[in-house]
């Protein structure tokens, strides 16, 4: 599927169409909170619908993917090289689980450009470029339809914003204007599109473990990542998912200690399988 399109309830819409259709609907809704109009052929038809939770004080509706909201969504979160992909590989063997890895290959090659590499070379210049593309591709991941009843994703649109954008901004590497523009995009998306997550599995590692695994993996763009970078990302994750002092956590969190060797990790994944699959966001 081209990235210029996303599927909502089986309908292919360009982001521009979605934006203007949603804006039109929201305008209708804001001016008097009237009932959603259901016109055949309109984007808000039997396949795509608005979730409505309307009271005089609370007049919010969101784009949802019809049918997809019944599926279980689990996001695997953790520091760089903490073992997320390895964890997803393990669960991908189950027929009822659809695994969606982070679209890193796209971040490394979008029409011949490498925004990930550019960002590591010059974060101030290219941080916005990378994170805009990360936000788009993660939204695409959240919205794509999958046949399996359980969807297991690597990271989320939430960690892209709360960890990586936040880090660029706090470290002084992202200009205010870039941060504000990205934040407005993020707020619009999360306020207008339903992005349900039932469980966050946090692979909790020390930065030292990640550093060792990063060296072992040896991804070209990441060769210059210093230990301090992993320490900062670690602390942002801890504040978000453990201390809960930074940003809203969109789902319950299951913490899996992930400094262990591979056999022990696989054993832990198996031990937690039932707990993970039993998750259902209230
Ligand atoms: N438990 C583990 N012990 C040792 N090495 C591991 C373990 N889990 C993953 N690795 C290795 O560490 C590197 C990073 O793992 P990966 O799953 O790609 O991390 P992530 O997806 O979180 O970036 C890979 O080379 C992988 O083979
Ligand atoms: O929003 C994001 C998400 C990821 N990255 C970077 C961090 C890593 O270098 C790669 C992929 O991360 P893994 O943990 O190895 O999956 O992408 C980013 O800069 N911004």
Automatic annotation (TrEMBL):
Q: Which GO terms describe its cellular component?
A: mitochondrion
Q: Among its keywords, does the record have Ion transport? A: no
Q: Which UniProt keywords apply?
A: ATP-binding, DNA synthesis, Kinase, Mitochondrion, Nucleotide-binding, Transferase, Transit peptide
> What is the annotated localization of this protein?
Mitochondrion
The reaction(s) annotated as catalysed by this protein in its Swiss-Prot or TrEMBL entry are: thymidine + ATP = dTMP + ADP + H(+); 2'-deoxyuridine + ATP = dUMP + ADP + H(+); 2'-deoxycytidine + ATP = dCMP + ADP + H(+)
Q: Does the keyword ATP-binding apply?
A: yes
Q: Which GO terms describe its biological process?
A: carbohydrate derivative metabolic process; DNA biosynthetic process; nucleotide metabolic process
Give all residue intervals belonging to the Deoxynucleoside kinase domain.
Answer: 74-278
Q: Which domain of life is it from?
A: Eukaryota
Q: EC number(s) in its UniProt entry?
A: 2.7.1.21, 2.7.1.74
User: Its Gene Ontology molecular function terms?
Assistant: ATP binding; deoxycytidine kinase activity; thymidine kinase activity
Q: Where are the transmembrane segments?
A: none
Q: Which SUPFAM superfamilies match?
A: P-loop containing nucleoside triphosphate hydrolases
> Where is coiled-coil annotated?
none
Q: Which family does it belong to?
A: Belongs to the DCK/DGK family.
State the name under which the record lists this protein.
Thymidine kinase 2, mitochondrial
